[in-house]
Amino acid sequence: MNNNLPQIFALAPINWHFPWWTDRQHLLSRLAARGWPIVFSSGPLSLWERESHEWMHSSIFGRAERFETGDNRPPLLIDHPGKVLPLWPKFPKWDQVVRRRHARRLQLIAGNNNEAGRIAFICYPSFLPYVDLLDARWVVLHINDAWNTFSDWNDELSNNFSKLAERADLITCIAGSMARSLTVDGLEKVKIIHHGVDADAIIAGHAAPCPTDIKDIPHPRIGYLGRITQKVDLGLVHKIASQHPDWHWVMIGTIAGIRDASPSGQDLRKCLSLPNIHFIGRKDQIDLPAYLCHMDVNTLCYKVDETGFWTSGFPLKLFEYLASGKPVIGSDIENIKPYADVIDIAKTPEAWIESIKHALMYGGVGTPERRKQVAYENTWEKRTDDMEHHLMDMIKTCANHTGSAAK
After folding, report:
1. pTM of the complete model
2. CB of 62 within 8 A of CB of 80?
3. Cα angle 274-364-286, degrees, rounded to a multiple of 5
4. In which residue ranges of the chain is pLDDT below 70?
5. What's the sign of the alpha-carbon dihedral 330, 332, 337, 340?
6. CB 49 within 8 A of CB 77
7. I want to staple 346 with a disulfide (CB 3.0 to 4.6 A). Which of 51, 158, 216, 351 is the partner?
8. Looking at 175-307, which runs of residues are DSSP E strands?
9. 3-state secondary structure of 107
10. Domain tally for the chain?
């Protein structure tokens, strides 16, 4: 164990316990296993979220959860904030008090480990105040989405984002499409760390029995894994399913953020009316490999005719699909196209139908072995190697600058 590693305070707007792990969770849990002391928090609760799952399942005073990471290594600490002193966005001064108190709470959870300094690992612009509240020596800005395309993006978040980008000692992006939007001095501090995969866990799904809620769904099964939001081309899914009633679509994930009156809402209603489109809800992370491996084809069926966050996103499921070895078909978006040797890129509904036929008859683009090879070239362990390397370079560079200034 390296006792000289800085304390990392990671802040992201998502609870640690989520049906699918995010890139931050994969990276941070592995860094913790390598000896980095880490406290993760999604920030204080808000009065405006009193109907949320997080609020209803939170205790009054909150708690800290410990995950042991190995002998002689610090545990990964997860902050579960309580309902006492929540944020109240109508009153900015109140929120300042709440954040100051929460930052002290995080320091107490960490044990006030100040010897090697602190890293503020910021995963959304709203956490800008914590850079000063935690007295962070280093700042990492981790960009995992095209935030400026979100519906709730506003001037305050935009200003916070600009300040974080300038203040950050290291900026990590999951795709070059997100890095291009940065207008900061010193672009050498911007690093690309794509999503990864726990390939062994996915491949193990082949040995697992078929999940009970899909075992009676006939083959061929066409799978989609992930939250079902406006990014999913449900109109495409409905059109294909209507023309090929013997093909069964299995949609694995929560339906979220689709308004009834929107085009996506109308397409969703059409999909729900067809007997060969099955919405089976979200599943636990540990069960996902069995679902992926019991499909005949897996899809990245995103919209391409609209401007939205998905057009510059990097699908977390991309390498998970490939690790299963099953044929993969994807929409023609920027961060899928580089993998055209193992993913069939379909540009029109007609092309999608032909791609599915080809996948079912001939095994799709690439081979199962090549798909698995690409997955093993992009594991979360390799991504953690990259992150750790960039963190150590950041610390070394800042130390060298401090030494030069002292002279």
Report:
1. 0.91
2. yes
3. 65
4. 1-3, 15-21, 112-114, 184-186, 306, 309, 399-407
5. positive
6. no
7. 351
8. 190-192, 221-225, 248-252, 277-281, 297-300
9. helix
10. 2
Contact 188, 239 (CB under 8 A): no
**How confident is the model over 257-301, as pLDDT tens digits?**
899 999 999 999 999 999 999 999 999 989 999 999 999 999 999
Are 142 and 24 spatial neighbours (Cβ–Cβ below 8 Å)?
Answer: yes
Residue 158's alpha-carbon distances to 124, 170, 173, in angstroms, are: 11, 19, 17
Please choose, from the candidates 290, 383, 407, 278, the residue with its C-alpha nearest in 3D space to the C-alpha of residue 30.
383
Question: In this structure, is residue 1 part of a structural domain?
Answer: no
Name beta bridge partners: 300: 330
Listed residue (145, 107, 64) closest to 309, CA to CA: 145
Residues 12, 19: Cα–Cα separation, whole Å? 16
End-to-end C-alpha distance for the chain, whole angstroms: 32
Name the E strands within 97-211: 118-122, 138-143, 170-173, 190-192
Per the CB < 8 A criterion, the answer to whether 13 and 42 are in contact is yes
Which tokens sit at 225? Answer: 């894994």
Q: Are residues 258 and 293 in the same domain?
A: yes
Nearest to 337 by CA among 314, 320, 353, 316: 314
Query: Could you give the CA distance from residue 280 to residue 211 in angstroms, rounded to a whole number?
Result: 11
Asked if 197 contacts 267 with a C-beta cutoff of 8 angstroms, the reply is no
Buried b (16+ CB within 10 A) or exposed e, 252-275: bbebeebeeeeebebbbebbeeee
Rounded-to-integer distance, Cα 53 and Cα 82, Å: 13
CATH no. for residue 236?
Answer: 3.40.50.2000
